[in-house]
Amino acid sequence: MSDRKNNNKNNKNFSKMLFSKLTNYDKDGKGVKKRKISDKERYSLKSFFIVYKNQFWNLIILNLIYMLMLSPVICGLLSYSGVFGTRVLSPSNIFYAPVYGIHLCYPTPATSNLVGIFGAQSTIIAGNNFMSVLNIIALTTFLTFGLANAGMTYILRAYTRSDYAYLWHDFFKTIKKNFFGSMALGFIDLIVIILLGYSTYYYYVAPGFQNTVMFLIMFSMCVVYFMTRFYLYILLITFKLSPFKLVKNAFILALLGIKRNFMAVLGIGVLMLIYVVIFMFSVPFGITLPFFFLMSNGAFISCFAAYPNVKKYMIDPYYAEHPEKDKDELKIEEEPIFIDRG
């Protein structure tokens, strides 16, 4: 028994000595090796949902700031709705004017009857001075559209890169830094959107085989420009480019990154489908949804899909040829070498 106790005691002393050597707190340990995350992992679908979950409430605040910049649109909607219009009685049939003109020139019992038929009156909404003021305020959207997109894109780019961003400060700092460029880009961007949208709708409702072909062409142009827009404002806030090279590179990246762009279009389509369903079941909630949810979420999908392509084809080659440059720099002062290859 005594021998067994001695052996147990010796084993305990050896264990204590070994533990003390292994846990020498006076020496620096190797630490935990940090595994480098590849761009494929950082910008994967799984990472998208992780970032989206972490930034969900910030996206809602960002949406509110964005819609605050586009608040003149509300004036245009109010004017279009006719809420503040002057209601008057007037003939509603479009044939009344020519029939009445014929009756004035060649009055007959037949024309008199036609005037009575086509002259049936109904209440219409006429414009007034207040509606004119609303329309003028609504036109300022052409000035604020690009500013709002530039500010929101900077915040979304930071979220995509897993960087921290101060919502109000960085939003308006980006606008100040890119004021004239973003305003000009937004003005042109909004005009192109209106022209493409109107042309597509016109050929869609117009009958005939030729108009059907034109509709398909215009619809294809809308899809291409929709994907090109993923890159316009990212390139604007990241590089100093001429307007021509800005659009040129955005178009090239829209083609090079077709896989991620298609997934973004699909995601935005699903988001819009959900919005339509919500709008059908609850119109008041559907009307308010764009003001705090829809815009920033759709823009985040497009930014998360587009930025990895910008990094792969423009940012990484630039820093590979300029290793002395700071990779945390927010604005690349020189044109990337990629631009002259296109």
How would you describe this protein?
With 342 residues, the chain is mainly alpha-helical. The protein has a domain at 43-70 and 141-322 and 329-341. The chain is 75% helix and 4% strand. The protein has helices spanning 2-22, 39-42, 45-54, 56-69, 72-81, 96-105, 109-118, 129-139, 141-160, 167-177, 179-205, 209-238, 243-256, 258-281, 283-321, and strands at 86-91, 121-126. The protein has a two-stranded antiparallel sheet. Helix 9 packs across helix 11 and helix 11 packs antiparallel against helix 12. The chain is elongated and about 90 Å long.
Provide a brief overview of the structure:
The chain is mainly alpha-helical and 342 residues long. It has a domain at 43-70 and 141-322 and 329-341. The chain has helices spanning 2-22, 39-42, 45-54, 56-69, 72-81, 96-105, 109-118, 129-139, 141-160, 167-177, 179-205, 209-238, 243-256, 258-281, 283-321; strands spanning 86-91, 121-126.
